[in-house]
Every structure is written in C-alpha cells, then in structure tokens.
C-alpha cells in the first residue's frame, strides 16, 4: 500500500473536518477511539460472524468492504493525531483463526493504544486490522480503491454539513 498517500489523503480529510468544528484534535481523540470501536462493531455486524443463532449469511462483500475502510480511516487518523505512521518494516503476517477472535483482538489493541499510545501499539493495531482484511478476502487494491471512494464521499458529506 502507498501509506504516504493514504496518510496525506486522511490528513486532508481530517483538516476539512477540524475546520468545521470548534474542538481541537486533542479534544476529539477519545471520541475518535470510540468511533473506531463503533466502526469495527458495524463491520462485525455486517460479517455476522458472531451471530451463531442466525442462519442468515453475511452482507455483500461491497458492504463489508465499505465498513472495513471506515476503520482504516479512523486508524490512519489516530496515527496522525499521535504523530506516528504505520511502519511497513513492522508488518507482520498475522494468522486469523476466526473472525470473532480477530474482532476481539482488535478491540484489545484499540484499548492498548488508548492506554499506551506508542508506535509499537499502533503498528500492532494496524497489523491486526490488515490481517482481518485479508481474512475477509480483501486485496490491497480492493482496500485502496474503496478507501479512495469513501474518502471522496466523506469530503462531500462534510461539504453538505454531514
């Protein structure tokens, strides 16, 4: 992935949002952490991986991918808030035993980043999230294209007072 480009696009979107609110990045940091948890939960809901009681299958891949890139937006934004970027040299191919376990691990990583906002914890969160994307059968190309489309949509939403 072209991380520099993604961080640049996210920085532009973040600035667009910050220009329209009266709070600082520091003031919305904890809201952003919660927003990530909510977006990850929305993703889990679309996969239906935890709905052992239901015979209904997951949502369409396009819906799941759009929810997935919402999480990418927030993880990139959190990195910008912390002044850190994902270190590709720290990339680890993480095995996902089950989607449910992967979601639990991501929630734990978000909490770890909240309590210890370090480069290592940020890299681990990104690694786990990328592993979830692979487990959901998303290619790097899929993720980047969906991110670009959602980023444009998010700019349009801001212009319309979303």
Number of beta strands: 0
Shape: globular
Strand % is under 5%
Helix proportion range = over 70%
Structure description:
The protein is built from six helices and no strands. The chain is mainly alpha-helical and 162 residues long. Helix 1 (3-18) crosses helix 3 (61-82). 28% of the residues are buried. The model has no long low-confidence stretch (mean pLDDT 93).
Features:
71% helix; 6 helices; globular; 162 residues; mainly alpha
Secondary structure blueprint with pairings:
Layout: H1 3-18, H2 25-47, H3 61-82, H4 99-115, H5 119-135, H6 140-159
Helix pairs in contact: 1-3, 1-6, 2-3, 2-4, 3-5, 3-6, 4-5
Sum this structure up briefly.
The chain is mostly helical. It has helices spanning 3-18, 25-47, 61-82, 99-115, 119-135, 140-159.
């Amino acid at each position: 992935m072209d991380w520099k480009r993604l961080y640049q696009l996210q920085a532009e979107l973040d600035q667009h949002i910050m220009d329209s609110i009266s709070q600082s990045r520091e003031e919305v940091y904890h809201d952003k952490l919660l927003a990530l948890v909510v977006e990850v939960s929305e993703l889990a809901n679309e996969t239906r991986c935890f709905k052992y009681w239901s015979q209904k299958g997951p949502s369409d891949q396009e819906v799941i991918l759009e929810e997935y890139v919402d999480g990418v937006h927030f993880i990139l934004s959190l990195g910008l808030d912390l002044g850190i970027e994902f270190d590709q040299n720290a990339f680890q191919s993480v095995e996902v035993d089950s989607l449910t376990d992967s979601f639990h691990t991501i929630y734990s990583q978000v909490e770890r980043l909240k309590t210890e906002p370090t480069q290592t914890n940020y890299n681990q969160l990104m690694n786990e999230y990328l592993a979830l994307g692979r487990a959901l059968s998303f290619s790097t190309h899929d993720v980047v294209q969906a991110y670009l489309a959602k980023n444009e949509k998010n700019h349009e939403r801001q212009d319309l007072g979303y």
